[in-house]
Design a protein that fits this description.
Blueprint (H helix, E strand, L loop, with lengths): L3 E2 L65 H8 L53 E6 L9 E9 L2 E6 L2 E6 L5 E6 L4 E3 L9 E7 L8 E8 L4 E7 L13 E5 L2 E6 L2 E6 L5 E3 L7 E7 L4 E7 L8 E7 L6 E6 L5 E7 L4 E6 L4 E7 L5 E6 L6 H4 L14 E3 L3 E6 L15 E6 L5 E6 L6 E7 L2 E6 L8 E6 L6 E5 L5 H6 L6 E5 L2 E5 L2 E2 L7 E9 L1
Antiparallel strand pairs: 1-34, 2-34, 3-4, 3-33, 4-5, 5-6, 7-8, 8-9, 9-10, 11-12, 12-13, 13-14, 15-16, 16-17, 17-18, 19-20, 20-21, 21-22, 23-24, 24-25, 25-26, 27-28, 28-29, 29-30, 31-32, 32-34
Length: 534
């Protein structure tokens, strides 16, 4: 399935911005909370303006062209596999009040109603109990290979994404655009999640160029779409400069990591809280969330083979280490699979193994074991090399168990797996597998949340089936689908590649964000954000 689909460009009254260079690097996304909402035993409670939900993001990309001559034939024969949007208006197919398309169908991207002669309706033929779909495509002009997308974050009644030089919010239930905040220069650093009050801090470039240095921080209120304070990052050392930043927010602190330097700033007003300690191994990257702030350091020896990595929890107010753990030589931290409890993956390229380490609150190791099953590179960290600790889009944990998407290891690359068609439960006290279960019809699954003693998973499209949501008892058992999207939605859902999609589940809706998009072309657009639910 391609990520390029046919559509008309915005009309004269909605001209796109001037062409600018794209921003090609990729960051990541947060993970939904849990708890039932009235009327839906598998939904999360209503999110207030100060709450947020956001998950994962990074990976491979793939796009191919689609022949214009095959448009209607593809739509009629495949029911939306490579689907088309042909109309007079410029909006996307979105939530509709009736199964059939009509001239009054709201296209769901905040640009007004679509129109005849043809409107692709992802809800056409919707059956009772199926979740309604809305879809947004990229209309922003981008240069080069396009731009990475960050999010989705859920704040109040909006779902929000950031890309290139803009932050955009959509109404979570229908995809209508709520607000759009332009930025003066491109993004170059995005944290996993905002602070508890909905405020987030981005890294932005000093000039309107993707080759300029990443020198500034910009605060944005995701609840209102208003830009807050902006400051130039004070240099701590002569070599303190970077083309990208790694950011993590914990409480009122945003930690900023770049080449062997780490600093902390107040999310509220931007004042500096701490800088790089004068001793210790070189800071490499930061991660974590509300529960704790984590720092990874690189310790270099005379021989590269003697190098080691250290992970430590640091005090958000002072930057001081609460505890440290030194990994064995050759083992590199891959991903933070869970923040609370803290669970980290590591990989060893030489030995071609990866492992899971679970930590107690005081930093003591609860368990550490090599894994006999395979997971995607986004979860073991192998081949990533980005310094992004939150790229895994397929793992959640409760107090004693990690639930992660996996499968049979690849025969050639045992660190990896081609198809994550299982959810695997790992005992955090022993490191051993408790149970594994296969996806419906052998389909790919992504654990997104734990609610009422059940693991909530996204079930990907496959074998002519559209995407769905399912639950698995935390004690094990087969997945049970409780939310199905309409059959015709399989086409646009298939566009969201499992190697780069970023997922969030909140209040009975799932949100899929493409990891990257390209500029719109005549009759071709990249799908940006899709959601379905009750």
């Amino acid at each position: 399935m391609t990520r390029r689909d046919f559509d008309e460009l915005p009309g004269p009254d909605r001209q796109p911005q001037a062409v600018q260079p794209g921003y090609g690097s990729v960051y990541r996304t947060p993970r939904p909370g849990s708890g039932p909402a009235p009327g839906n035993p598998y939904a999360q409670p209503p999110v207030q303006a100060a709450d947020f939900v956001r998950p994962p993001r990074r990976g491979l990309r793939g796009r191919t062209g689609v022949l214009v001559a095959a448009l209607l034939a593809a739509l009629l024969a495949l029911g939306g596999g490579s689907y088309v949007l042909l109309r007079d208006g410029s909006g996307d197919a979105g939530d509709t009040a009736a199964p059939a398309a009509s001239a009054s169908v709201d296209q769901g991207d905040g640009r007004g109603p679509g129109g005849p002669p043809f409107v692709f309706d992802p809800n056409a033929g919707i059956q009772p109990g199926e979740g309604r779909v809305w879809l947004v495509s990229n209309r922003t002009e981008l240069g080069g290979s396009g731009a990475s997308q960050h999010g989705p974050w859920r704040v109040g009644d909006a779902v929000i994404k950031a890309m290139y030089k803009e932050v955009t919010a959509y109404t979570a239930t229908d995809g209508k655009e709520k607000w759009r905040l332009p930025l003066a220069t491109p993004l170059c650093g995005v944290p996993e999640s905002p602070g508890p009050n909905g405020k987030i801090v981005f890294g932005v470039r000093e000039k309107d160029s993707t080759t300029s240095q990443c020198t500034h921080l910009q605060q944005v209120d995701l609840a209102t779409g208003q830009a807050g304070w902006k400051l130039e990052i004070p240099r701590e050392k002569v070599f303190d400069q970077a083309s990208e930043l790694r950011l993590a927010i914990s409480g009122d602190t945003v930690a900023v990591a770049r080449a062997a330097v780490v600093s902390g700033f107040s999310v509220t007003d931007g004042h500096k809280l701490f800088g790089t300690p004068s001793s210790g191994c070189a800071p490499a990257t930061v991660g974590g969330g509300a529960a704790r702030l984590m720092l990874v350091r690189d310790c270099f020896g005379q021989d590269p083979a003697d190098g080691q990595s250290v992970i430590e929890e640091i005090d958000p107010a002072t930057g001081g280490a609460k505890w440290s753990h030194r990994f064995a030589k050759g083992s590199n931290p891959g991903q933070i699979l869970s923040v609370d409890p803290l669970v980290v993956s590591t990989y060893n390229k030489q030995e071609k193994v990866w492992s899971i380490t679970a930590f107690a609150a005081d930093g003591a190791v609860r368990s550490q074991a090599n894994s006999a099953f395979g997971v995607g590179k986004r979860c073991n960290g192998w081949g990533n090399g980005s310094g992004d600790l939150h790229d895994c889009n397929a793992a959640v944990a409760d107090a004693d168990t990690l639930y992660i998407a996996g499968g049979t290891p690849d025969a050639t690359y045992p660190l990896d797996v081609q198809k994550t068609d299982e959810v695997i439960a790992v005992d955090l006290n022993t490191g051993q597998v408790k149970w594994r279960t296969t996806g419906p019809d052998g389909r790919v699954m992504f654990p997104l949340a734990i609610e009422e003693g059940k693991v909530v998973v996204y079930v990907d499209t496959d074998k002519g089936l559209s995407a769905a949501m399912a639950v698995i008892p935390t004690g094990g058992g087969p997945p049970r689908i409780f939310l199905q999207s309409p059959k015709i939605a399989k086409g646009p859902e298939s566009v969201f590649s499992t190697s780069s999609v970023r997922l969030a589940w909140v209040e009975g809706r799932v949100f899929l964000l493409n990891g990257s998009v390209r500029s719109p072309e005549p009759k071709k657009v990249d799908h940006s954000l899709l959601s379905f639910g009750k």
